[in-house]
Design a protein that fits this description.
10 strands, 2 domains, 7 helices, seven-stranded mixed beta sheet, three-stranded antiparallel beta sheet, alpha+beta, 37% helix
Length: 265
Amino acid sequence: MIEISPETKLLFRSKKLEEIWRPRIKRITRAFMRLEFETFLRGLRDLYIYHYHSEKPEEIFDLLNKYHLSFYPTRRTAIYRGFSHKHIRPVSGEPFYLFGALVKDPKIGEEFVRKETDHTWIGLHLGYPKCCIDFFNKVWYSKSIDPIWEIAANTENAEISGRTVQVEIHPFCNQALRYFGIRITPHLPCSFTCERTVEMGEEWFKIFKEIDQEAAEWALEILSLPFTWDCLYGVAVIDTDLFKGITNSDGVLEKKVVINRGWST
């Protein structure tokens, strides 16, 4: 199986677009990271998945003290840039990330350690829709570590021709730009029009706007754009009107293509 190291790159259509949108995407990414933590603090979910740099322990100590939380680590992972679909074993003697969960209730933290590979239990405590958890469990191990094509093919009214799927993707369900930090919901949906994910997205989007209204609106704008996503030999290319994005993905030997017609909001 072909495996590409974690890597992401955005190539903008013009210098002007880059000047406008690169700083906007950075704000979207920062705001979404805060959104994930804020939804945890507000009780929308019981866990906050977190990792910290082994040489910067003060980062987590500040969080634990400020919000009266507990941290339950489960593993060490290599430090990487880009987007990774799975944990990477660290090199002995080098810095690493300590991966685990922040919790308010120690009982949930203890259970998290026991069930660190139980995606159903973890997904439910992260607030993910059950339909999406079930779909993830179905495709992740047997078909794809980056199931954008599989989600598209499972979407109502999708047009499938060979290994090309044409679909209309709701922005709250759009995870095809998550590699670059652009998303409104945190999970892979069972379809790109999943009703439960849209309902969740409505709640998350309200909080997103409280954190940074401009960033939330920019995220909605980008996630509503048409694009083409294709994957071959471990590399996914996402082509939009603003940029071409490149990232590591499934090591398939036959190209998979998703054509998103866009979404009118």
